[in-house]
Amino acid sequence: MAHALIEVERKFIPGPGTEKRLQELGGTLEHQVTFWDRYYDTPELSLMRADYWLRQREGSGWELKCPGTAGVSGPHQEYVELTVEPAIVAQLCVPVQETAPAKLMVYLQRFQPQDYQRLLQVHRLREKPQGTKDPEGNLG
């Protein structure tokens, strides 16, 4: 009979005396691991709003963490973690291939977010409902 593995993760913030108390109890630091994650989402944060977390973990590749079984009760949630790229793409199911953003827009979004937000606001103000004329007489 096969056994399923279940990972239980609980995050906590240790108090100021935690490390000293652990040492008093004989605890030692076995090893320390440092890594970087890069999280990805749409400009509207549609993945995070749906509780989906798409990341590229340094040295591990792509991971998608998404809600698992419904009906889990208690102070925890169950997530499914996908690490195989075809499974991630299938879960996200983005049938329309978006065009790559302009380099300047990506630069502004990353390094000048205030200017990027102002550009988005100006763009929204310029958008007209379909079929209306702009001041130059062109149809929108």
From TrEMBL:
InterPro entries: CYTH-like_dom_sf, CYTH_domain, THTPA. Residues 6-89 form the CYTH domain. One of its GO terms (biological process) is thiamine diphosphate metabolic process. GO terms for molecular function: magnesium ion binding; thiamine triphosphate phosphatase activity. It holds the Pfam family CYTH. Coiled coil: none annotated. PANTHER family: THIAMINE-TRIPHOSPHATASE. This is Thiamine-triphosphatase isoform X2.
